[in-house]
Amino acid sequence: MERRTIGAAALEVGAVGLGCMPMSWAYSASRRRGEESLRAVHRALDEGSTLLDTADMYGPFTNELLVGRVLKERRRDAFVSTKVGLLVGDQHIVANGRPGYVKRACDASLRRLQTDVIDLYQLHRADPEVPVEETWGALAELVQAGKVRALGLSAMGARSGRRPGARLHDTTIRQLERVQQVFPVSVVQAELSVWSREALDALLPWCAARGVGFLAAMPLGNGFLTGTLTPGEGFEPEDIRARHPRFTADMMAANQPIVAGLRRVARRIGPDVVPAQVALAWVLAQGRHVVPVPGAKQERWVAQNAGAAPLRLSAEDLAEVAGLPRAQGSWD
């Protein structure tokens, strides 16, 4: 697979990563299979999808334990990214950015991941009770101690902290500018897909101008852009899509033209190309500093996603994707 070098620390990873969260968290519990997930992670490494993205809160903890079973055998093949800063309780999630907690959490993640060093350690969410510079200073000390190679900031909570009238990532950019004064940011992770393009407005250009890598989370629109979901089929109660406004039966039906457009482009490229690969190729085309991190828990989807790396969308393809209807249904 094509390799991409991203971030101030010159991190080299496969062009398409693997989001490990669905194996343990947030999606249908009845479809989780531990051994199947292990095979999926191994397949990702075989395909060259070296970046494995996890977090201590996924499970909680069980996702890191799963990834750790693979790292114990194949640490040299993998680039491991995990996150810190969120605590999971009964029916709630809270941020914790206290320096002492961050350092203890890192040690715990290292044990679960069965490794001596974390390649990329991301702040999952800034703690509103702790100046972000203090949290980032603790993360920088972990780099200096040799426990972490590079630091990143996750912008996945941007919608909840948005001010009325503000662009989605304005708060994230302010945080980034503050922590850059403490220690270099190597990577930012935020949602980017054909149906969620807000990062293109300011966040992606901010990263490009500063040599900061960009991990595109949910590049397949929580599975919608694969074209494999049926409107009205429903989701299990704990599945995040059961509460997402774009995944009501009406909105899924209304957004089918987006998938239809991806199918048209896929057919034009070749008979074996599928909508998911076009969606990932579009993300890859947004810049050499961009690495999509699609979530998957089965080997076949991992292999299919990896197959997007060599695709090159033509100017006609890119124009057609750019002209697709905007998604209906929003958190806002």
UniProtKB/TrEMBL annotation:
Residues passing through the membrane, by range: none
Domain NADP-dependent oxidoreductase, chain residue ranges per copy: 16-322
Keywords carried by this UniProt record: Oxidoreductase
Any one GO molecular-function label of the UniProt entry: oxidoreductase activity
InterPro entries noted in UniProt: Aldo-Keto_reductase (IPR050791), NAD(P)_OxRdtase_dom_sf (IPR036812), NADP_OxRdtase_dom (IPR023210)
Gene Ontology CC entries for this record: cytoplasm
Name the UniProt record assigns to this protein: Aldo/keto reductase
Organism of origin: Streptomyces sp. SID12501
